[in-house]
Design brief:
elongated; 0% helix; three-stranded antiparallel beta sheet; mainly beta; single chain; 16% strand
Protein backbone atom coordinates (compact mmCIF):
# COMPACT_ATOMS: atom_id res chain seq x y z
CA UNK A 1 0.00 0.00 0.00
CA UNK A 2 1.52 3.41 -0.95
CA UNK A 3 2.41 5.87 1.78
CA UNK A 4 -0.15 8.65 2.06
CA UNK A 5 0.16 11.97 3.77
CA UNK A 6 -2.46 12.43 6.44
CA UNK A 7 -5.25 14.83 5.57
CA UNK A 8 -4.34 18.39 6.52
CA UNK A 9 -5.85 19.53 9.76
CA UNK A 10 -8.78 21.89 9.42
CA UNK A 11 -7.87 25.43 10.47
CA UNK A 12 -9.12 26.50 13.85
CA UNK A 13 -12.26 28.54 13.60
CA UNK A 14 -12.06 32.30 13.81
CA UNK A 15 -14.73 34.24 15.65
CA UNK A 16 -15.89 37.81 15.22
CA UNK A 17 -17.48 39.62 18.15
CA UNK A 18 -19.34 42.87 17.51
CA UNK A 19 -18.98 45.17 20.51
CA UNK A 20 -21.78 47.72 20.88
CA UNK A 21 -20.36 51.20 20.30
CA UNK A 22 -16.95 49.63 19.66
CA UNK A 23 -14.80 47.55 17.34
CA UNK A 24 -15.12 44.15 15.73
CA UNK A 25 -12.87 41.76 17.65
CA UNK A 26 -11.42 38.80 15.77
CA UNK A 27 -10.08 35.78 17.64
CA UNK A 28 -8.50 32.60 16.29
CA UNK A 29 -6.84 31.82 12.98
CA UNK A 30 -7.46 34.52 10.39
CA UNK A 31 -5.60 36.72 7.94
CA UNK A 32 -6.03 40.46 7.51
CA UNK A 33 -4.90 41.75 4.11
CA UNK A 34 -4.71 45.19 2.55
CA UNK A 35 -6.47 46.09 -0.70
CA UNK A 36 -3.53 44.65 -2.69
CA UNK A 37 -3.69 41.33 -0.86
CA UNK A 38 -0.58 41.97 1.23
CA UNK A 39 -0.92 40.42 4.70
CA UNK A 40 -1.06 42.82 7.64
CA UNK A 41 0.76 41.24 10.60
CA UNK A 42 -1.62 40.69 13.51
CA UNK A 43 -1.71 38.69 16.73
CA UNK A 44 -4.36 35.98 17.24
CA UNK A 45 -6.71 38.58 18.74
CA UNK A 46 -7.27 41.87 16.95
CA UNK A 47 -9.79 44.72 17.09
CA UNK A 48 -10.90 46.20 13.76
CA UNK A 49 -12.08 49.81 13.52
CA UNK A 50 -15.76 50.41 12.68
CA UNK A 51 -15.89 54.18 13.19
CA UNK A 52 -13.32 55.22 10.57
CA UNK A 53 -11.42 57.48 13.01
CA UNK A 54 -8.54 55.17 13.94
CA UNK A 55 -5.03 56.39 13.16
CA UNK A 56 -3.92 52.77 12.66
CA UNK A 57 -6.68 51.54 10.31
CA UNK A 58 -7.84 48.87 9.83
CA UNK A 59 -6.99 48.30 13.51
CA UNK A 60 -8.88 50.01 16.32
CA UNK A 61 -7.04 52.57 18.46
CA UNK A 62 -9.98 53.49 20.69
CA UNK A 63 -10.93 56.61 18.71
CA UNK A 64 -14.59 55.51 18.73
CA UNK A 65 -14.75 56.54 22.38
CA UNK A 66 -14.47 60.20 21.31
CA UNK A 67 -17.07 59.99 18.56
CA UNK A 68 -20.63 59.10 17.83
CA UNK A 69 -20.38 55.40 16.98
CA UNK A 70 -23.48 53.81 18.44
CA UNK A 71 -25.13 50.44 18.15
CA UNK A 72 -24.00 47.26 16.48
CA UNK A 73 -25.14 47.99 12.92
CA UNK A 74 -22.80 50.91 12.10
Amino acid sequence: MPDRDPAPAAPAAATVTVYPDGPLVLRGDFAVRDVDGVPIPTPRIVALCRCGRSAVKPLCDGSHKRGSLTGTKD
